[in-house]
Amino acid sequence: MKKLYIITLLATILPAGFAMAQVSYYLSINFEDTSTVKHVIIDTANHNNIWQIGRPAKTVFTNAYSAPNAIVTDTVLPYPVTNHSSFIITIKDPQWFQGSPSWLDFYHKYNTDTGKDGGYIEVSYDGGNKWRNIINDTIMSSCPFHPSYDTVPSYFNFYLKTDTISGGIPAFTGNSSGWTETSIIWQFCLGVKSWPPDSVMFRFNFVSDSIQTNKDGWMIDNITFYSDECGGIKHISTADYFKTHVFPNPATDKIEVSNELSPIISIEFFNLIGESIYSKPNIVNRTPITINIADFPSGVYIIQVKTAEGLNVEKFIKE
To answer: How many domains does the chain have?
Structure first.
């Protein structure tokens, strides 16, 4: 499902008739390939750092998402009390953060003391001198869909500002109830003043309080960074991997949503601050599905299409 989810996003439409041409940057870390694992720097100066890369063998964390390895807050033991552990991934290629959109996507499980212990992600644009929790990041606030908004689209599965742990830190906390895919997007960032920076750094933190609960902690797998290259083409590629189609795009009154390879189960529309504005559930159909958009305000919308094969995300413009 992950590859389908990523590739379908290449059909994203930009304003003024622009479209995505191709992937300009792609890095996927599955913790098996040593050539990509080298991008993950565990803070070994902290002798209490519990992040480990390996095969999980814990009470809840029994398997990696893509076997055999993942990065885990200890591959065998429950996480200890009063711990703060981290690892950093640095993106130095300007093709990632100069593209539109630019994505961070990963699969993870978390099993922690709710509201007390958990994991959060920080970002730095100045080589690590200043870090900010991504949910509070204002550097990229001019880019729609960035998680600095109070409401994050549900299909991104990111924590909100109100999901806090000890110290009032927004974080993933509690029990994920299985593997969850989480995504963060920096959208329409071309042309931002003083951009791009020299590098973008991501720090994954895990924090626990002084009460031992013998829980497993946080496990992450298949961390992927990718970005599209913007170009002056006016048509979307019709390559086979664009499985979900929205036509016409832009549109004024009606659109047709179709998928040639897999039955459509449901369709849901979101605006650019993540609010669900329309849903059509309980569909099982291969033929084009016509949706009246005449009453939608003009603007850019995200369409989440669930098929028998997986989840697709497309964008369209209402003129």
So the answer is: 2
Residue-level pLDDT at 138 = 64
Quick check: is 312 in a domain?
yes
The predicted-structure confidence for 135-144, as pLDDT tens digits, reads as follows 887 655 434 3
d(CA 186, CA 41): 23
Residues with Cβ < 8 Å from 107, sequence gap 6 or more? 2, 65, 179, 180, 181, 182, 220, 221, 222
Distance CA 208, CA 204 (A): 14
Say what percent of the chain tops pLDDT 70: 72
CATH code, domain carrying 147: 2.60.120.260
The pair of three-digit structure tokens given for residue 173, joined into one six-digit string: 């906390």
* Residues 263-307: tens digit of each pLDDT: 888 888 887 666 788 888 878 776 788 889 998 888 878 888 887
Residue 242 belongs to some domain of the structure: no
- Which residue do the tokens 């605006």 mark? 271
Question: Are 49 and 252 contacting, i.e. CB atoms less than 8 angstroms apart?
Answer: no
Question: Rg of the chain over CA atoms, in angstroms?
Answer: 20
Give pLDDT, residue 305: 82
- DSSP structure string for the chain: -HHHHHHHGGGPBPGGG-EEEEEEEEEEE-SS-HHHHTTEEE-TTSTT--EEEE---SSS--S-SSSS-EEEE-SSSPP-SS-EEEEEEEE--HHHHTSSSEEEEEEEEEE--TTTSEEEEEEESSTTSS-EEGGG--TTTTSTT-TTSSS--GGG-PPPTT-EETTTEE-B-SB--S-EEEEEEE-S-TT-TT-S-S-EEEEEEEE--SS-----EEEEEEEEEEEEEEES--S----TT--EEEESSSBSSEEEEEESSS-EEEEEEE-TTS-EEEEE-S--BSS-EEEE-TTSPSEEEEEEEEESS-EEEEEEEE-
The closest alpha carbon to 109, from 50, 63, 42, 164, belongs to 63
Residue 3 lies in a domain: no
